[in-house]
C-alpha cells in the first residue's frame, strides 16, 4: 500500500484519480491547490503524486519543480495528468521533473497500470527524458 497525493483543481478529476488509487489499495490524500499539496508533501510521507497539469493558481510544471526540491520527494514518482498530448507539453512535463505523463482521456485500467509501474520502479529515480 502506498501513500498517494492527488492534486487537481477539478473536483471530478480528483475524485476519479482518488477512486482508482483507493481501488488499488492505496491511501489517498486529495488537495485542490499547489499550496495545500506542498503543505501535505512537507508534513506527510508521499510515495507518489498525481498532479494536474493546468490549474488556476499554479501550473503542474511549477508544482512538479517545487515538489522535486523536497529532499524526500527527489526520486518519488510524480505523474502529470493532462488533456494535452502535444510534444511541447510532453517536453515541459519532462523538464519539470515528472516521472511520467498520463493523457486524458484514459481508462481506469490504464491509470492503475501506470501507477503500479511507477510505484514498482520508485526505488530508482526515473524521470521522463532522463
Helix content: 40-55%
| Secondary structure category | alpha/beta
Lateral arrangement of strands in the main beta sheet: 2-1-3-4-5
For the report, how would you describe the main beta sheet? 5 strands, parallel
Q: For the CA atoms, what is the radius of gyration?
A: 13 Å
End-to-end separation: 27 Å
Please count the helical segments.
Answer: 5
Q: Please, what is the average pLDDT?
A: 87
**Shape call:** globular
Which spans of ≥5 residues are poorly predicted at pLDDT below 50?
124-130
SSE arrangement, N to C? EHEHEHEHEH
Estimated share of beta-strand residues: 15-25%
Query: Strand tally, please?
Result: 5
Q: How would you sum up this structure, described in words?
A:
- The protein has helices spanning 11-23, 34-43, 60-68, 87-95, 108-120; strands at residues 3-7, 27-31, 48-52, 78-82, 100-103.
- By secondary structure, it is of the alpha/beta class.
- Strands 2-1-3-4-5 form a five-stranded parallel sheet, with helices on both faces.
- β3, α3 (60-68) and β4 form a beta-alpha-beta unit.
- Mean pLDDT is 87; it is low at 124-130.
SSE blueprint and pairings:
Blueprint: E1 3-7, H1 11-23, E2 27-31, H2 34-43, E3 48-52, H3 60-68, E4 78-82, H4 87-95, E5 100-103, H5 108-120
Parallel strand pairs: 1-2, 1-3, 3-4, 4-5
Quick tags:
5-stranded parallel sheet, 5 helices, 130 residues, alpha/beta
Short description:
This protein is of the alpha/beta class.
Amino acid at each position: 500500500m502506498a501513500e498517494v497525493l492527488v492534486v487537481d483543481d477539478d473536483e471530478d478529476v480528483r475524485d476519479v484519480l482518488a477512486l482508482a488509487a483507493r481501488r488499488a489499495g492505496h491511501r489517498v490524500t486529495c488537495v485542490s491547490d499547489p499550496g495545500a499539496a506542498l503543505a501535505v508533501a512537507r508534513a506527510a510521507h508521499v510515495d507518489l503524486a498525481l498532479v494536474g497539469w493546468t490549474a488556476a493558481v499554479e501550473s503542474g510544471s511549477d508544482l512538479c519543480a517545487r515538489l522535486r526540491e523536497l529532499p524526500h520527494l527527489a526520486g518519488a514518482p510524480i505523474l502529470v495528468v493532462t488533456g494535452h498530448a502535444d510534444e511541447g507539453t510532453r517536453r515541459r512535463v519532462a523538464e519539470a521533473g515528472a516521472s511520467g505523463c498520463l493523457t486524458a482521456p484514459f481508462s481506469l485500467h490504464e491509470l492503475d497500470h501506470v501507477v503500479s509501474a511507477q510505484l514498482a520502479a520508485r526505488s530508482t529515480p526515473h524521470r521522463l527524458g532522463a
